[in-house]
Amino acid sequence: MPRRSQGTIPLLTLDPGAANPLYRQLADALRRAILEGRVAPGTRLPSTRSLADDLAVSRSTVVTAFEQLNAEGYLVSRVGSGTSVPGDLPVASAGPLPTGPGDGTAARPWAPPPPRPFRPGIPALDEFGRGPFGRMLRSVWRSPDAHALALTPPAGDPDLRVAVARHLRGSRNVRCSPEDVLVTFGAQEGLAVAFEAVAGPGREVWMEHPGYIGARHAAESVGARPVPVPLDEHGLDVAAGRRRWPDAVAAYVTPSHQFPTGCTLSLPRRLELLEWAAEGDRWIVEDDYDSEFRLAGRPLPALQGLDEAGRVVYVGTFSKSLAPSLRLGWIVVPEPLRSRALGLRLARAGAGSPWLQQALARFMEEGHFARHIRRTRRLYRARRAALAQAVATHLSPRGVVLREPTGAMHALLDLPPGLRAAAVARSARDREVEVLPLDYFAIPPDTDVGEALLLGFAGYDEAAIADGAARLARALDDVGEAPPH
Ligand SMILES: Cc1ncc(COP(=O)(O)O)c(C=O)c1O
Questions:
Q1: Phi, psi (degrees; rounded to nearest 5) at 265
Q2: What CATH number is attached to the domain comprising 51?
Q3: Following DSSP, what letter does each residue of 129-160 receive, concatenated?
Q4: Is the peptide bond before 260 cis (omega within 30 degrees of 0)?
């Protein structure tokens, strides 16, 4: 029997028989109710205890769902005044759903707490902040062009499109000219535009399972239907996708460095996927989100560079290489989709700030971008070694296993039998450490991804990494000692 609750929040329906865990069902239902305005900004939520009673679920289910929404910026909790929807949450212009816990895209001016170990998706922000970007910004503002003070061209600043195209050709083997590049508000806008251009409402889009939740949200935001395709050691299992979802019109992949598992799509699989697309008039959305930071060997060339049939929309971002707050990324769009893609982004928000784009174009032209990548790559290598050391000291003795990270920004920890990743993540939060359970990245209706935690490490120095691992070890002990709910 579905469980229902009615109180200061609208009717919620949870299904204990569904494969999706109850806390996720509750978080999804509340998020949707907030975004749709059914729970207004400023609303105070019932206590976790009374909501748990109402829904006939355990209190920890409600606590986990609230924590999730807290991290995403949809809820705030204050000692003494309970949990509420931030009064300034801009739900009327909901825009893309958050790309991950703690990124705070949903709430302004409310901001998430400053990054702390091991929140994923955070690069070495102080390195970027200290660098020459400020000088570039000042020089652009000292002499802004007349056209910059009016509006940026809708596809983005021409110099930045030139610089991005050069970077992609040189380092990623992407086939493109500046005309193919659209500058976007981060990968998130690029993904939404791509999905809207290639997959209409109700059309199925293959998603890697587990996979990037921001892509899933982007597909849902344009009415498409994300469906799970499993991974194996070669990456996306194309044959399984064909069997299970034969009507899909597009596939979303992170071939260079699968998010979040870190595997790479093998060459035979790349060719198989390209063939699937070419034979059926289908599309591939390639998200090359952290390609600059492969630590082992040379970065793998992009899938787009192998595509003879022009079926790949290539998406990238400056969020990992520079800073997520820039909200700058790009899509490389095959010619037949270009005017549609441009129309879609004009209809949404236009082209964004010219100064930021011009400063970034100069930053790239003068070689600062390449230097910054080289420097941070060295730094991340040291931080990755610090993580391995800290895990060996604090966590291996507790049966935790670090999967050798292939990239430079995040890693997975497998938990010993009997420990639930969601419970550890909850307990870690009490110890002021942020980790995400791998099942956060499950693509419904599939759920089972094992009990593992995702840890970002690139944004934290070696001392913070060691301290975070020690705290995480204590959090594991707390869970081991706590009576089961
Ligand atoms: C797979 C993947 N794609 C893209 C992004 C970056 O998105 P954006 O450019 O919108 O910040 C992330 C960040 O977490 C990611 O993990």
A1: -75, 120
A2: 1.10.10.10
A3: HHSTHHHHHHHHHHS--HHHHH---TT--HHH
A4: yes
Q: Give the list of residues 6+ apart from residue 404 with CB closer than 8 angstroms, or none.
A: none
Q: Which residue's CA is minimally distant from atom 3 of ligand 1?
A: 289
Q: Does residue 407 share a domain with residue 457?
A: yes
- Provide the phi-psi class of 350: left if phi over 0, else alpha when psi is between -120 and 50, else beta: left
Question: Of 331, 348, 365, which marks where a domain is finished?
Answer: 365
Query: Global pTM?
Result: 0.79
390 and 333: one domain?
A: no
Instruction: Summarize pLDDT for 146-175 with one digit per residue, the tens.
Output: 767 777 788 999 999 999 999 999 999 999
Ligand 1 centroid distance, CA of 188 (Å): 7
Q: What are phi and psi of 103, to 5 degrees?
A: -85, -10
Averaged pLDDT for residues 45-55? 86
Give yes or no for residue 406 having a pLDDT over 90.
Answer: no
- Confidence check: pLDDT of 107 > 50: no
Ligand 1 pocket test target in 189, 320, 438, 455 with most atoms within 8 Å of CB: 320
Return d(Cα 97, Cα 217) in angstroms, integer: 6
